[in-house]
Amino acid sequence: MTGDGDSGSAIVEFVLVGTLLLMLILDVIQVGLVLHVRNTLAADAAEGARHAANLEVPASEGGTYAQRLIAETLPGRADTVCTGQDEVGPGDIPLVQVTCTVVVPLSLVPLGDGVTVTVTGHAVKETP
Fold first, then answer.
1. From CA 85, how far away is CA 63, in angstroms rounded?
2. Which of 19, 28, 58, 120 gives 20 to 30 Å between its CA and that of 11?
3. Cα-flanking dihedrals φ and ψ of residue 104, to 5°?
4. Sequence spans of domains, the chain
5. Which pLDDT band, with edges at 50, 70 and 90, does 107 fall under?
6. Banded model confidence at residue 8, pLDDT cuts 50, 70, 90
7. Which residues are 120's β-sheet partners?
8. Global pTM?
9. How many Cβ atoms from other residues are within 10 Å of residue 64's Cβ?
């Protein structure tokens, strides 16, 4: 047999490089999914704060409203916790704050249990 000892090395190189590339692609997709959940939560929390900022609507209603929106926009996110509360902003401006928290599982790449995402939405409260 004649050969330089490199026969079959292309297959091994392909498997090694292909595995690394696959992990990199899955990581990028996972980051995109986490960012999508965060942006959607932020929009729904802000909408909940705007809802609770209406005249004679309690601030706690903003959290409930945001949870209903999240259930519609992010199916399968029943574990989301949203709370609404009154605040006083700069210059004694009455505000409503809605805070939403959810754990996003890392399903594509086994890097842990998940990432906890917390977002906050604010709106100026209407006064009579």
1. 8
2. 28
3. -95, 115
4. 4-124
5. confident
6. confident
7. 99
8. 0.81
9. 17
